[in-house]
């Protein structure tokens, strides 16, 4: 690969000053970029990791990515044809990009903001750690990229996410001091992507790193305003330049002296900045030292005694009952038809606390929408589906987002039709074709791949299953 001369000269100086060997660095740009698969921890238990990976790549030795406890190297094509992909059991992701999601250490109940979230790999990893408790606010300033983010949030079965399409400067007007943790995977000059995306070289030659550094400063300022005292901030880029990495954090910490670096010596496979270096405790992935593209990551903690505005992010709660009785009954009738007794009781309790019915639509918001003010909200929580008249009755038509949040052990045996990974019926279902089973009871069913829910169907008494998989998501 022909690299810009200015980039070569600068990197020789930076490698020397950081005491990282230059040997093999420039040659690494001519090597094939590595591929990775991250397992969805909220859907796949650790004892099933191996079987899932073997189905994806039967002839391949399974190798763990050292800096991600659910990430694996793979040479398998990570196209959208796999039933596991459609079920949200896996997320194809460049190995280095898994580092920030591991570093931030989200916990159930946290309020976490991902300020630059598309296409969603880091946001989805955070949501898996939340495990349905707390709120993930995933933001993307580009409207087109926000659509890709939404698709991945839905595919991975995340019920407690707010997806925004906003400038971080606007967000801080409404979300000051709400976040326990914030992740900033900042827009950057993309030097770590050179071998994966040749167009990144042309973009670098045209724009360089300086405009990115100015934008990075602005995003970090917004993050500080939205972060609670004692909160944690992870900053990452896929570039090598000190200007966009260490210098930005040093500048930020000088302007906000209450921050400290949290080191992560337990994270393996990365290069840790030692004491005496420019930013001790920060981490880098060098492509000639580690198995991944170039990446920078640092974890900060805000002082507990920081003076800043603090707010709550209240949950949406039902203000009064009496309206929407028919709609609520239709929804509960549907859910009782497919859920086992324990799961239905939990769903009913959740609906009684925070079911929002607006017109013919039903949803479980992740937070009170009033908190979000005039922000551009792409999605708030879980969209359940819509109500349709059928004669004098009202029936509930579920969204596929609902199906993807369900787990096999929540469902009645009679409501699940699960096929093995390589069964031709799964391909037919994902293409929108009608399926058939043995004649028997009619009603709503969930189609699954090895127990991982894909979507809904409607079974008739003769065993024919009407395909309800969304047209926009079907295989061609």
Distance between the termini: 35 Å
Please state the average pLDDT score: 95
Low-confidence stretches: none
Q: What is the CATH fold-level name of the largest domain?
A: Rossmann fold
CATH architectural group of the largest domain:
3-Layer(aba) Sandwich
Shape: globular
Task: Please provide the count of β strands.
Answer: 23
Report the major sheet. 10 strands, mixed
By CATH, the superfamily of the largest domain comes out as Vaccinia Virus protein VP39
Radius of gyration: 24 Å
- The DSSP helix count reads 14
Number of domains: 3
Please state roughly what percent of the residues sit in beta strands, choosing from under 5%, 5-15%, 15-25%, 25-35%, 35-45% or over 45%: 15-25%
- State the secondary-structure class: alpha+beta
* CATH level-1 class of the largest domain: Alpha Beta
The portion of residues assigned to helices is 25-40%
């Amino acid at each position: 690969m022909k690299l810009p001369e200015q980039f070569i000269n600068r990197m020789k100086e930076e490698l020397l000053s950081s005491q990282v060997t230059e040997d093999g660095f420039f040659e690494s740009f001519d090597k094939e970029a590595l591929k990775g698969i991250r397992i969805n921890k909220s859907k796949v238990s650790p004892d099933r990791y191996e079987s899932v990976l073997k189905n994806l790549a039967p002839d391949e030795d399974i190798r763990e990515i050292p800096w991600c406890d659910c990430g694996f190297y793979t040479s398998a094509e990570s196209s959208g044809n796999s039933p596991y992909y459609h079920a949200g059991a896996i997320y194809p992701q460049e190995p280095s990009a898994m580092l920030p999601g591991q570093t931030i250490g989200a916990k159930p109940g946290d309020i976490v903001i991902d300020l630059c979230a598309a296409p969603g790999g880091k946001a989805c990893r955070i949501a898996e750690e939340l495990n349905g408790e707390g709120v993930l606010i995933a933001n993307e300033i580009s409207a087109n990229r926000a659509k890709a983010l939404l698709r991945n949030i839905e595919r991975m079965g995340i019920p407690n996410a707010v997806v925004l399409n906003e400038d971080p400067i606007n967000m801080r007007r409404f979300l000051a001091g709400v976040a326990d943790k914030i992740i900033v995977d900042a827009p950057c000059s993309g030097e770590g992507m050179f071998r994966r995306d040749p167009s990144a070289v042309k973009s670098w030659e045209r724009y360089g790193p300086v405009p990115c550094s100015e934008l990075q400063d602005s995003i970090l300022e917004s993050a500080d305003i939205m972060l609670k005292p004692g909160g944690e901030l992870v900053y990452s880029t896929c570039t090598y330049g000190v200007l966009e990495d260490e210098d930005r954090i040093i500048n930020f910490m000088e302007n906000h002296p209450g921050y400290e670096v949290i080191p992560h010596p337990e994270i393996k496979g990365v290069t840790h900045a030692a004491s005496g270096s420019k930013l001790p405790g920060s981490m880098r992935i060098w492509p000639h030292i580690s198995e991944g593209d170039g990446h920078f990551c640092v974890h900060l903690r805000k002082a507990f005694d920081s003076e800043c505005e603090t707010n709550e992010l209240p949950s949406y709660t039902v203000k009064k009952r009496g309206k929407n009785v028919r709609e609520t009954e239709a929804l509960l009738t549907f859910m009782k038809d497919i859920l086992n007794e324990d799961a239905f009781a939990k769903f009913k309790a959740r609906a009684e606390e925070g079911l929002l019915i607006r017109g013919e639509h039903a949803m479980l918001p992740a937070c009170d929408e009033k908190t979000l003010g005039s922000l551009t909200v792409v999605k708030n929580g879980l969209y359940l589906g819509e109500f349709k008249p059928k004669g004098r009755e009202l029936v509930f038509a579920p969204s596929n987002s609902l199906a993807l949040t369900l787990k096999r052990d929540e469902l009645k045996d009679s409501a699940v039709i699960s096929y093995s990974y390589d069964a031709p019926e799964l391909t037919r279902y994902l293409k929108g074709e009608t399926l058939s089973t043995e004649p028997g009871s009619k009603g709503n069913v969930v189609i699954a791949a090895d127990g991982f829910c894909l979507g809904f169907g409607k079974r008739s008494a003769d065993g024919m299953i009407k395909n309800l998989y969304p047209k926009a998501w079907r295989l061609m």
